[in-house]
Amino acid sequence: MLPDWLQNSYSQIIRNPTGTKKYFLVRFLFQLLSYPVALISCLRNSLYKFGLIKKEKIDRPVISIGNISLGGTGKTPCCIYLLEIIIKKQNQVALISRGYGDDESMIYQKKFPNIKMAFQSNRVEACNKLIKSNPEIQCFLLDDAYQHQKIKRDYNILLINSIEPFGYGYHLPRGYLRESLKNINRADLIILTHSSTLKEENLKRLHNQCQQFAKANTPVIYANHTPEKILTPDDEIITLETFLKISKNTSTGTFCGIANPQSFHDIFKKKDLPISTSITYGDHHKYNESDFQALKTNQQNIQSWITTEKDGVKIPLAIRKELNIYILKMTLNIIDPEDIILKKIDELLK
Predict the structure, then answer these.
(1) What are the tens digits of pLDDT across the range 220-265?
(2) DSSP 115
(3) Share of the chain above pLDDT 90, in %
């Protein structure tokens, strides 16, 4: 994992307007480096496409969730949404994840203590081991697996962030694209997340762009990540409205270490909650004593803090109580039409 300062600097270079001269040389170097990255990605995809690298068939239905550009698409809320649907239908599901950061695994384990999970790079091995030890498993959900083609999947779901849909149009490291946009055609379903942030005409344009790359008749549906509940420093659940009332006349700060931090900070601006301080760490930040000490130093001016669920699971309850840290829980809401997903899951698990 890159240090925070390097992640934040990289984000500045990529996300700043292309006309900015400040980062011209760095961007030029990144663009040169992006060509071999794109070539390797293309060769790898071709090897899978023409069967020169064998795909493994797992003896259970496999649903995959992933993205075509780095971070911020909402894979974790989408996985939670699908797990809840499958469990509600009284089916035995197992979750397989690459596990880049501890935050996702901690969230999954806390929310779903009774389902089988594996966090490792060799997903074929993980699936086969779980089937052997837990033959009652009926299906697998692969998290962040769009580029992991080693396993044949029965349903390939691609998430695209409406705010930054195509990784600024460049492969890594010049942009955030993990592979060429033409590979959108591997998706069986495309979900445009954070869709409410776009005006209707811009959303329609993005929808049409996705359909240009997708297979014929691939559904493109919309989803939002809705702030639903707040976890208090005492580990109690309250509504967002209650939190806003509590915080209205107090000094509040936000902090997070996620792929798209601005979207988190902006939630409270849109709710007209005055934010005194906003602190941004690198994605998958591992909190330590010096971080808590820095928050304590700010505590002279800040009466309460709020952070994301991914960050909150890594902070001990005692620290949350001491620093008055609240945790925002987000929910994925499928806008139109949810039946597509429900029918497909029924079809796979019948």
Answers:
(1) 999 998 888 999 999 999 999 999 999 988 899 999 999 888 889 8
(2) S
(3) 76
User: Peptide bond before 165: cis, by omega within 30 degrees of 0?
Assistant: no
Q: How confident is the model at residue 4 (pLDDT cuts 50, 70, 90)?
A: confident
Residues 283 and 312 grouped into a single domain: yes
Whether this model's pTM surpasses 0.90 = yes
pLDDT in tens, 281-304: 999 899 999 999 999 988 778 999
Do 144 and 66 form a contact (C-beta atoms < 8 A)?
Answer: yes
| Domain count along the chain | 2
* Domain housing 124: 62-225+333-349
Six-digit token string for 126: 């993980």
Is the Cβ–Cβ distance between 204 and 305 less than 8 Å? no
DSSP annotation of 183: G
CATH code for position 257: 3.40.50
Residues 245, 340 within the same domain: no
Average pLDDT, the chain: 92
Is residue 40 in a domain? no
Report DSSP letters for 7-67, one per residue.
HHHHHHHHHS-TT-STTHHHHHHHHHHHHHHHHHHHHHHHHHHTTSSPPBPPSS-EEEEEE
Query: Could you give the CA distance from residue 206 to residue 309 in angstroms, rounded to a whole number?
Result: 29
Write the single-letter amino acid at 191.
I
191 and 73 housed in the same domain: yes
Confidence tier at 1 by pLDDT (50, 70, 90): low
Collapsed DSSP state (helix, strand, coil) of residue 177: strand
